[in-house]
Fold each of these.
Amino acid sequence: MAAGIECRGNSLRMWILNKGEKLNEPLDWPATPEYTERAKQWAELITLEMKMGKFELSRHFPNSKNLKENQISYYAKIYLEDIKKEVAPSTYASYEGHVKNHINPKWGRLHPEDIETKQVKKWIKQLKDTHSSKTIREIITRFSQVHAVWRDENKVAFDPFQNITIHQADTPEPDPFTKAEINRLLQTETDLDIENLLPCLFWTGLSMSEQIPIAWEDINLEKGTIQINRSYVRGVYRVTKNRRRKREIKLLQPALDALKEQYHFSGNARTQVIEVLQRDNHSYKEERLRFVWLNRERSTHFEYHELRYRWGKHLKKAKVRKRGINQGRHTFASQLLSSGQVPPEWIAEQLGHADTSMIYKHYGKLIAEDMPDYLSKINQYIQK
């Protein structure tokens, strides 16, 4: 039993003769005298460990292709490969982050059969110091799914995650803008790039991922409609989140007027060619578009972080309490509900929801100061 170093082109490789089997482990080191000496010392250490019966390949080369299927990190890799083409790129990036930033650093070198419920619960308590319940639940869900790959492959029935429950905090209530706040924001001077965008944030009901990639090819100013065909998340254009979100919305007058004004700025902009990821999360379709909300410094549409920065500056300038830019969508639902003039079903259709449950649960909050005087109306009706 021994270990040694050899050059492979411009890099180094370690060979390990263990129990009659020769293993080759590439090193991410250039074949310089300094690194060669370090590699030799490493090989000598491995040789010594072999003589003492303490050598473990996984400790020296955790990502080795020669490792047996005995580590969480191995099954995490399989899990990520399996789901890569099954979920949206933004979702995959989130899952990959859970694995690389949390699961592998803590559990990557352990054998799946060594994972105990007690250990996981202890880890959850530690995570609570730095992460929200929602994030923790997502991390543990990924961990459970990684572990399930091993259980399925080895026909193991015991699931250490079965009796783990993570209680989430109540969903934060929507924090919509009042009419007075909306008027103050619209009347406060702002950058020309977003002047016409502001009314559309409040009066279209679009999420920011839908608002950013809107193109003139989607808009019919005569009919007063927008066809919602795509979204833009983390640098990727893709079809709408679900089929229900692919819809035609009817424009309220403030939004329609703003778009007519915006046409003078970007209606004749150059066409840009983009690739839109389709619902299978694999194929792409080419589209040629003239984007509506152009950052004129870059001659293409805004990125989310750019709008969020401008939005924060504008709130401060208008002396309106700070809230996220996505509250525009909440405001749309809440203002229409508060008006008493619009059935919830119409609002749900505009937002792209199948029914009204999401309206009340996530977006709708009656704004007391903007509600009609229903009591007077009822009294007048009774006295007739």
Amino acid sequence: MPRKKYNLFLFDLDGTLLDTAPEFYQSLNKLLKSHGLKNKNFTQIRSKVSDGVNALIEMAFNISEAEDGFLNLRESMLETYKKVSLNSKLFPNVAKVLDALAKQNISWGIVTNKPKEFTLPIFENFGWENKTEILVCPDDVNNLRKPDPSSLDFAINLSKFSKEKCIYVGDNWRDIEAANNSGIDSILVSYGYMTSEELIKIKPTYKIDDSIELLKFI
């Protein structure tokens, strides 16, 4: 059981609240097909989703960000992804957890490395703008990304809570390191996009296997 209760729950988006892997799978393979290349399997793509679009393109096309053609590939993939991004579903029990936070009048918000251009439509699609005012993207902090703590610090400043009353929930090493760098507690969810071997190396304050376990922190 957690040793204390929290006033603010901050969540990562992809791999924590939202399962975006199917949409990235669709978008990347459409791009590969347009270049006459074979599809990547779902497992290959899923394991890279938390690393972002650039990592997916590097893996699929064996190309670095510095090489000619990379930006065109990135723009093409994001154009496709934007069309299907609202199809993403919440992970099991996430809706129950967010409802429980609302019923207990406990504040929550989202801190993501996903640019606001793609995050805001998702945020509004779920009606979250009526439930929280905290949505922090790289755009809000000079494009700094986790594990840099700037986005978490920005969110906490918006909330007015002390850091000891805040906790960050994420699925990736960047999330946990960002929380450590910010000086707040963290929860690692194992149902996200990291492999079991990768999860072992991450040292959060707490670890859970199902989002429903978050209820014991409320």
Amino acid sequence: MRPAAQWQVGVDIQRDSLRAVAVQHRRYGWQLRGWWEWPMSHHSPADTQLPPQADVVSALGELRRSLPAGYRIRVGIPAGRTLQQQLVLPAMAMTESDTCRYIGQMAAQQLDMPASQLCWDYVASAGSKHVSVVTAPADEVARLQEYFTQSQCHLSAITPDALALAPYQAQEGDNAWVIYRSQQDWLWYGPQQWGSTRFSDVAGVPGLLARLGCEAEHIHFCGPHEVRTEPSQEWLDPYHVLHLVAPPLPENIGPFVIALGLALGRYPA
């Protein structure tokens, strides 16, 4: 008999709340195993989207005590705090460590800042020297890691929150765009693209669609906040990515979209 798969947990940290969702892959598909929500107090400086450390550590400690042994956790970092770059590797062969070091140096050079202030990850294109690089401020990554260290909660991966929309986009089809309305931003994931846009940077939904270059019939909205469109469009049902759900369920699944998407993501070996 094969051992049961590990629980995969997505954690979405916002200024006013921390939400977590756990799933487990079974023979018939994904099963929802649990969901949690903790309110956060509002004491953070205006330049950060993260709540007070004590609130986060306390919530993560409670989460850890609710999970079985052998869980995996992925936490989101705001996509607006990351930067996507396209780089070309040298023609000469390099080891993986040399490649990682080279990418870090080139990314830092383009941003005109020390590599020590950045964290980065990359995906290489098959049969090509082109790589897609995502960078994030090292201090923000360290802060997320410190939350989990202090709460004695094992962290497996840190991912831009917009990538949590990938499982929903895969469910809807290759041409689909999944757009999530958060408190201050639009998060989006489409064909070969993902990112975030501040509300103030676009003129409503028409301005957002124009910026993304996508057609309304390919859009699937989701999230905790209503989006009014003309004509009115149906919202994406997050439960469609799961094969087994059972009560008790959240009264409103919208606020848990990012946490659920993070839980369904790929994890390091």
